[in-house]
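pasting for ref
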Amino acid sequence: MSLTIKKPDLNPDSLDEKSLTISLCMIVKDEEDNLAQCLDSVKDLVDEINIVDTGSTDRTMEIASQYTDRVFTFEWNNDFSAARNFSFSKATKDYCMWLDADDVITDENRTKFIAMKEELDPSIDVVLSPYDYYQDKKTGAKFTHVRERLIKRDAGFYWDGVVHERITTDDPNITSAFTDVVITHSGYETSKSSDRNKVILKSVIDSGKAGLREKYYHAMTLYSDGEYEESLKWFHEFLNELGDGYFECTNGILAMHDIYLKMNEPDKALAVLMDNESLCSDMSEFYCALGNHFRDIQNNQWNASTCYEKALTCEGLMRDSSLPALKQDIYYYSVPLRALGQCQVKLNQFSEALTSYKRARIYNKKDMVLKELCDNLEKLVLQIGA
């Protein structure tokens, strides 16, 4: 179910009093550099602001108090879900909305938010929206997740997971809707927060109570730290327990592939991809990685081309979500099309390569290297009549 976003004729100061009401619920710690920007972007869109501080030593609480008198403290216990659930418990309005202190709502999306709030059907339990979590400055590619953003306060939802927490429910009959209101993550994970997450994950692992999610994120943390052997151990344990479980693990499988390549074991790297294709069968990133392996490691342009063509058919349907993961043009179109063109050049399929490059440019017009490739290849095709 999707919300139909109409162009509103309202401004934030004239929201219909009959609109459903929203409580903003945030957990913060030492966010004096980010909090004001976040709250300025949302303060007139919500009906209540609840700020839960988990132990700030800077001006965070002072800044929060300038926006709301509903500022609470929570004794930090290495459990993000516990803090999030506490913040939700303070809400008094129809829906809870969560943001992190380094999230913002742009002017364009503020306008969409107003329309969404006006049109929200009170029978909807949860509203999902795009979350632009990271943008690569070199390629312009965005990492976008679909996240639960508005949650009906009395619908029985709760946060789960001590770190990398998620919203869940035990009710199989919830109703959901999707809005194109984008939340933008303006910051990046600092070494301080990364170290904190490592400590939390390690304590869960050492307790022997780690579930799939904790094992997965522990393996990913080890991978990012370059502890490859130990990372592979936990990735394999995770996959052995996964079975048909509902968990999106494409990034983990690609990490395992990368680890084996770094360890100079290309056969094992390929086997990881081939053995786990069923887990990633609708993810373009997976088939691009598989194509890159055939192209760069085996110099097999035919197999690589087949993978890139497969990538172009993917919908990005994640295993732990009922909604597509908002295909980003650069990943689901431009990257595989450009790679396909490279293979076609090596196969002397110059006309086909030109078509692929031109299609890639539609989705990445700022890429001047790609433009030069198109121009040069077009001259070649005219010259040889290919």
